[in-house]
Amino acid sequence: MTSRMQSPHTTCPGCQEEVFLDELVGGKCPLCGCSLEDFDESFGEYEGILDRSDLSWLIFNYFVFKKFVDMGVPPHQIMEFVATYEQNTEKPTGEWTKTEFTLEIPMNRWDQIRPKHCAKCKKLFFRSGKKSIRGDMRRTQLTIEYVCDRC
To answer: pTM of this prediction?
Structure first.
């Protein structure tokens, strides 16, 4: 409800009702059909609020966040990852220097009881340890790794 109140709106001169600018039909009030003369003037100040690049960045962040949350990554790790990725893409050269990532995820019951090989020391271990996913933003493949408590 709060986001709706922040969207641009005006009062219709014909029916005196509050009308949101995105609800106008051909520049006319959807309730009474009265033409709003000041529609073009008032809408011009809101054009720069949501740029197409901002919208695509929001959609990108949403799907990255949703994918990692569904895998069990803590939200603060996702936000740190997105923040570093955003800082990395704002460089003037336009090149992405760091697109690799490693995020820790919780182990499920099967992961806790089955034997695992440590990604660092290559030893076999059964209990405790950490599970993480590793990947690259330029590729779709994710690698699941396990690390023992000794490493």
So the answer is: 0.53
